Amino acid sequence: MIETSRLTIIPLTLDQIRLHLADRYQLEKTLGLKKGHREVTEPLLSIITHFTVPRLKDPSNDPLYHTMWLAIDRDKQQFVAEAKFKGEPDETGTVEIGYGTYPALWRNGYMSEMVGGLVNWVGQQPGVHRVVADTDVENVASQKVLEKNGFSLFDRVENMLWWEYIV
C-alpha cells in the first residue's frame, strides 16, 4: 500500500482482480468503499484477462509488478484511478508503467498523484533504475502527468511518445 496526500494506492490480489472483472461494485463492497466511476472496458479488459491474471497465477512472477494498482480517494472513499507495471525490472533495471483514470474524474490531479506515488515506490525497489511510459502524441493530458512527475521525452515511434524517469 502507498499513501500520498489524498490517495491510498493498493495492489490488488488475484481474488480482488477477479472481483474487479466480475461485477461493477463487488470489489468496492468487499473493501467497504462507495460506488464510484470505476468500470473495466477495452483495452483494459483484455490486458487483465490475457496478461494480468495469467501472470498473477505464475508463482515465479512478483505480483506487485503484474497486478493492477487502484487509487482510493480517502475523503470520497471511492476508486479514482488505476495503474500497473508491465513486469519486473529488465536487465537494465527498467520497468514500464501504464495508467488511467475514469472520464468523470479527469482534470482532478488524481493521475499525477498516483503516478508520483508509484514512481516513488518503485524507485525504492531493488534493481530499479529507470521507469518508462508511452503516450499517444495527441494525449496531452497523459504527457502532462509524466512531465509533472519528472519524466523526460526520449523517443518517438510513429504516433507514440516514449518517456523516462531515471531513479
Short description, anyone?
The chain is of the alpha+beta class and 167 residues long.
Strand order of the largest sheet: 1-2-3-4-5-6-8-7
SS strand fraction? 25-35%
Given helix and strand content, the structural type is alpha+beta
Mean pLDDT: 95
What does this structure look like?
Helices cover 31% and strands 29% of the residues. The protein has 167 residues and is of the alpha+beta class. An eight-stranded mixed sheet has the order 1-2-3-4-5-6-8-7, with helices on one face. Strand 3 (68-73) and strand 4 (78-85) form a beta hairpin. Helix 1 (14-22) packs antiparallel against helix 3 (44-57) and helix 4 (110-123) packs across helix 5.
Structural descriptors:
5 helices; 8-stranded mixed sheet; single chain; 167 residues
How do the helices and strands line up, and which of them pair or pack?
Layout: E1 2-3, E2 7-11, H1 14-22, H2 26-31, H3 44-57, E3 68-73, E4 78-85, E5 94-101, H4 110-123, E6 130-136, H5 140-148, E7 152-157, E8 160-166
Parallel strand pairs: 5-6
Antiparallel strand pairs: 1-2, 2-3, 3-4, 4-5, 6-8, 7-8
Helix pairs in contact: 1-3, 4-5
